[in-house]
Design goal:
single chain, mainly alpha, Arp2/3 complex 21 kDa subunit ARPC3, three-stranded mixed sheet, two-stranded antiparallel sheet, 9 helices
Length: about 240
């Protein structure tokens, strides 16, 4: 079913989606050029908007934001971050851009596959039509799926950034005098890795839940419908079944 509100047209929904995309891009730009640090730990909050879009919207919006985030991040390493010791590494598009795009691809398709496999809406037939009876269960499972998909998106980012750095730069001396070694690579990528997985996996599910309840994003795409006869309380949750 559609996530359109009463009286809302498809054009109005597209306008809202565009506004959400613009907001998420603005947050991406802010976090990219003004990273948030907690002591010696700097979390990659710039990927958080992409992780949210990947769990709440369609693949087209996910790819658009993923590509834009990759471009913004690349520009940052040529401007405000150019003085960093690892800047020559991050200025390589294979290290800087491709893993960012893959975050959205992996997070989106993992979430889509798990929802179609694990989310099965149960309906009973009433005089008004179909009524879902397992709303709370759907919300709970959807939150777990959002957390798992987010974690794998973070893993994808770190894995491919580290992999390309090892393949292209391990043992080399950069033009700024930095000696790239496996120990340096593991330290650079590993210091924030576990913290980002935990933090983002906790942050994304409640954000998605709030957006779904506000109908700012569509209901989750789900698997096979189940029709039952049990009476239950009325609900206004309208999932999409594919």
């Amino acid at each position: 079913m559609s996530n359109l509100k009463s009286g809302e047209t498809p054009n109005a929904r597209r306008s809202k989606n565009l506004a959400i995309l613009a907001l998420m891009l603005a947050l991406t730009i802010f976090f990219c050029f003004f990273p948030i640090s907690f002591g010696a730990v700097t979390l990659a909050f710039m990927i958080l908007p992409l992780l949210i879009i990947a769990q709440g919207y369609d693949f087209q919006m996910t790819m658009i934001l993923g590509v834009l985030m990759a471009v913004v991040n690349q520009l940052a390493w040529y401007t405000t971050k150019a003085a960093g010791p690892m800047a020559p590494v991050w200025q390589n598009p294979l290290v800087c851009m491709l893993p960012r795009v893959l975050i959205g691809v992996v997070s989106y398709f993992v979430g889509l596959g798990l929802r179609k496999a694990l989310l099965h809406p149960k309906y009973r037939i009433t005089e008004e039509g179909k009524e879902i009876v397992n709303q709370k269960q759907i919300y709970a499972i959807d939150g777990v799926i959002s957390g798992i998909s987010t974690a794998l998106g973070v893993v994808t980012n770190t894995l491919f950034c580290g992999l390309f750095t090892v393949l292209l730069y391990n043992g080399k001396m950069l033009t700024n005098g930095t000696q790239i070694s496996l120990e340096l690579i593991l330290t650079w990528f590993g210091i924030n890795f576990l913290i980002e997985i935990i933090a983002f996996s906790i942050l994304v599910p409640p954000i998605i839940l709030a957006l779904r309840q506000a109908r700012l994003v569509p209901p989750p795409k789900m698997g096979r419908e189940i029709i039952i006869e049990e009476p239950t309380k009325e609900t206004d949750f309208e999932p999409t079944s594919f």
